[in-house]
Write a structure and sequence with these properties.
single chain; alpha/beta; Arc Repressor Mutant, subunit A; D-Maltodextrin-Binding Protein, domain 2; ten-stranded mixed β-sheet; 45% helix; LysR family transcriptional regulator; DNA-binding transcription factor activity
């Protein structure tokens, strides 16, 4: 039998190790990572720039790696480092080892996301009443095992639940959200004065902004929801924002407006049934006011598959009800 060359020995040992199971002799992944980047760039300063780790810390870790192996991997020179023959062997395999480790971590995280199989969304009543049932039904039709938690809250509370991490997604109306929020627009809808048919305003073609402070208004209380939109609208002409009653309940607001000589300012869609039945009237504002709703998530949370599906289905349902088709190529962020 011929003499084995140095190139065939590692292969024969690797095959034997595979048959017998993993060896207990393993490399520290952090030290391997540092060695790989120093070897790749040829300089500790290059590895420092790539990894954001101090040169001294990397040098100590690589020295420990060499000590564990009992081999010198790098030749330190005044201009950087060069690989020793042993270092060349390790460098040859290091990228594949590190890439496989990274792929395994990604696969594990993806599997964890798929197995979670739950998603939550918070929305104001004006949105919930019109869209939420269809969103949940479509989600269940596509993903029968997906558990969905839908929370109805005032516009201001919805944002608080999202930023507090209590829900995965939220329907919000902030045009300029905090940087930690990622959102995409869903719809823009008119906001009008809502009153009973017997109210004097019901006979008007529109309600001038300057007249609003004369009305007995039922308005939301939360400052970072619909009230923020109204406050901005009123402030353009320095019209005082006054409310006789503050209520963060859509049902209560509608009930009060139907039974007393009160008005509220809401998206027309939130009272469609009552308007169609003749119980309420929507009167346009002059100048017009519109509200844009967004579906939002936290930027620092990598969206799981279920969250992406929820965002996509929400947009589909809204656009279908709005009589539009989904724009090609628009995907989850």
């Amino acid at each position: 039998m011929g003499t084995m060359t140095s190139k065939t020995r590692p292969r024969r040992r690797a095959a034997s190790a595979t048959q017998q199971g993993p060896s207990t002799q393993i490399l520290d992944s952090r030290r391997l990572l540092y060695f790989y980047y120093v070897a790749k760039t040829g300089r500790f300063v290059g590895a420092e720039a790539a990894l954001g780790v101090a040169q001294s810390a990397m040098s100590r870790q690589i020295q420990q790696l060499e000590s564990e192996l009992g081999l010198q991997l790098l030749e330190r020179t005044g201009h950087g480092v060069t690989l020793t023959p042993f270092g060349e062997i390790l460098y040859r395999d290091a990228e594949d080892i590190l890439q496989r480790m990274s792929s395994t971590i990604t696969e594990l995280r993806d599997a964890a996301s798929r197995n979670a199989q739950s998603v939550s969304i918070a929305a104001p009543p004006t949105f919930t009443n019109v869209y939420m049932a269809d969103i949940i039904l479509r989600l269940q039709a596509r993903h029968p095992t997906l558990r969905v938690r839908a929370v109805e809250a005032s516009s201001g509370s919805v944002m608080n639940q999202l930023t507090g991490g209590e829900v995965d997604c939220a329907i919000v109306s902030l045009a300029n959200p905090p940087r930690r929020i990622v959102q995409r627009p869903l719809l823009t809808e008119p906001v009008t004065v809502i009153c009973s048919p017997s109210h004097p305003v019901a006979k008007q073609k529109d309600v001038p902004r300057s007249q609003l402070h004369e009305l007995d208004l039922v308005l939301p209380a939360a400052l970072n929801g619909s009230r923020a939109l109204l406050r901005e609208y009123f402030s353009v002409e320095d019209v005082p924002l006054r409310s006789l009653i503050e209520a963060d309940s859509l049902a209560l607001s509608r009930q009060l407006v139907m039974q007393r000589r009160l008005c509220t300012i809401l998206p027309t869609s939130s009272c469609e049934e009552q308007i169609a039945a003749g119980d309420l009237v929507a009167v346009a504002l002059n100048p017009p006011l519109a509200r844009t709703l967004y579906i939002a998530r936290l930027r620092d949370h990598s969206p799981a598959d279920a969250v992406r599906v929820l965002m996509d289905v929400t947009e589909e349902v809204v656009q279908r009800k709005q009589g539009r088709t989904r724009r090609p190529g628009k995907r989850s962020r």
